[in-house]
UniProtKB/TrEMBL annotation:
Cysteine pairs bridged by disulfides in the record: 41-46
Ligand binding (NAD(+)): 178-185, 201, 265, 305
Domain FAD/NAD(P)-binding: 4-320
Protein name: Dihydrolipoyl dehydrogenase
Cofactor note text: Binds 1 FAD per subunit.
Active-site residue list: 437 (proton acceptor)
GO BP annotations, alphabetical order: 2-oxoglutarate metabolic process
Family as reported in the entry's similarity comment: Belongs to the class-I pyridine nucleotide-disulfide oxidoreductase family.
Protein EC: 1.8.1.4
Residue ranges annotated for the Pyridine nucleotide-disulphide oxidoreductase dimerisation domain, each copy included: 339-448
Superkingdom of this protein's organism: Bacteria
Organism: Geoalkalibacter ferrihydriticus DSM 17813
Length: 465
């Protein structure tokens, strides 16, 4: 029986990155995946969603082409072709990951893995069971959509995010339960495609934890797109009929829709992993790890959604490097102080560090710089003048504590703020860095200058507290 230096369970953005990182350092590595490499993110989450988002964004811009002097008829949208394009993108990327694993000499096993004891794994496939040994094991089994028992999720009429990405016909109406980032992204996409969308959120507002000014911009866009939003509202019952679902909302409101999307969170995939048998401790279904991604068993590590630390693909990939380094004898610790996030609504949101609300809740003495897309020459040239850049700094030394973006390319712009934060730059230093003109990143420079009332393209010189 071959004994591997590292065996990785789960081939998502945590698992396949861990396998490649380990192989790059000369380790003997295997990767075990029950389905396709790439995990939920590549196959049933981030990537197919963003492929549809790209289509929705293009469709939205085509409908405004007349603003640029381009006269076209109302675009005819073919959802089946958009879905086929999405699948082609996913297939190409899955193939790319498989080639990377092969090139690095990572042995790929197909099957469902479970721990038998530290250093020993069982792999099951239909009618076949195999076992292998490894000096170190990295668990990267990800998460799955939460399916509340109160909702009859059948995969046909009442769907999770995985199932809605597999539909081939565009629904005429869609009710989304959950106003978090998953629900709001799908709301933007399907509204752009022509579906009548309703979002129901039990909390007082959409996108909890996201900067309120950014959320207000999204809410305005939702209203313009004809999306109906119910906050402070619960879904009390779903009744599935022939080709429709009747929805009972709190307050005795009723709605009848073609499809319902349940987007109320995700839970770690720990079922059947043999954690208890191997002595790996969990809490509320998530694997407990220390700063070095070690579990309660020193030779077993866990990364990504299965730890429930931050359910973000890029965090899983980051944790992969920490786990591999420590499995090979290092002593690295994860640092989550600078973690950018992106929400692909129309318009996009990007955020890193503290939001203004979080900073005020902590009674921090802050100064704020703001800059509007309406004052950006590049945004106006693009016809994308809706949006805002906001930078939060410590009042005493100008350190950047957080930044929020909403508007065109917000998902990309947030990275500049993340780099500045990681480098420990002050707003003054960031504001003095030469930015190319005319570009959207100039807004980051101007927002940084605005912290001290020095933004050239913004009226007023008052410092913002």
């Amino acid at each position: 029986m071959t004994e591997y230096d590292i065996a990785v369970v789960g081939g998502g953005p945590g698992g396949y990155v861990a396998a490649i990182r380990a192989a790059q350092q000369g380790a003997c590595v295997c990767l075990i995946e029950a389905e396709r490499v790439g995990g939920t993110c590549l196959n049933h989450g981030c990537i197919p969603t963003k492929a549809l988002y790209s289509t929705a964004l293009l469709l939205q811009r085509l409908r405004r082409a007349e603003e640029h002097g381009i006269e076209i008829e109302e675009p005819r949208f073919d959802f089946a072709r958009a879905a086929a394009r999405k699948d082609a993108v996913v297939k190409k990327l899955v193939g790319g990951v498989e080639q990377l694993l092969k090139a690095q000499g990572v042995e790929l096993y197909r099957g469902q893995a479970a721990l038998e004891e530290p250093g020993r794994l069982r792999i099951r496939r239909p009618e076949v069971t195999a076992r292998l040994r490894a000096k170190n094991i990295i668990l990267a089994t990800g998460s799955r959509a939460l399916r509340p028992k109160a909702f009859p999720v059948d995969g046909k009429n009442v769907l999770t995010s995985r199932e809605i990405l597999a539909i081939k016909e565009l629904p005429k109406s869609l009710l989304i339960i959950g106003g978090g980032y998953i629900g709001c992204e799908f709301a933007s996409i399907f509204a752009a495609f022509g579906t009548q969308v309703t979002v129901v959120e039990q909390l007082p507002r959409l996108l909890g934890g996201t900067d309120r000014q950014a959320v207000k911009e999204v809410e305005k866009a939702f209203k313009s797109a004809g999306i109906t939003v119910h906050t402070d509202t619960a879904v009390e019952a779903l009744e599935v009929g022939e080709g429709q679902v009747r929805v009972q909302l709190s307050g005795k409101d009723e709605a009848t829709v073609e499809k319902v999307l349940v987007a109320v969170g995700r839970v770690p995939n720990t079922d059947g992993l043999g954690l208890e048998e191997a002595g790996v401790k969990t809490d509320k279904g998530a694997i407990l790890v220390d700063e070095g991604m070690r579990t309660s068993q020193s030779t077993i590590f866990a990364i990504g959604d299965v730890t429930n630390i931050m359910q973000l693909a890029h965090v899983a990939s980051y944790q992969a490097g920490i786990a591999v380094a420590n499995a090979l004898g290092g002593d690295e610790k994860a640092d989550y102080r600078v973690v950018p996030s992106a929400i692909f609504t129309l318009p996009e949101i990007g955020q890193v560090g503290l939001s203004e609300e979080a900073a005020r809740e902590q009674d921090l003495d802050i100064e704020i710089g703001r800059f509007s897309y309406q004052a950006s020459s590049k945004a106006l040239c693009d016809g994308e003048a809706q949006g805002l850049v906001k930078i939060l700094t410590a009042a005493d030394d100008g350190r950047i504590l957080g930044a929020s973006f909403v508007g065109e390319e917000a998902s990309s712009l947030v990275s500049e703020a993340a780099v500045a934060m990681a480098a420990g730059l002050s707003a003054s230093t960031l504001g003095r860095i030469i930015h190319a003109h005319p570009t959207l990143p100039e807004m980051v420079m101007e927002a940084a200058e605005d912290v001290h009332g020095l933004a050239v393209h913004k009226a007023g010189r008052k410092r913002n507290r």
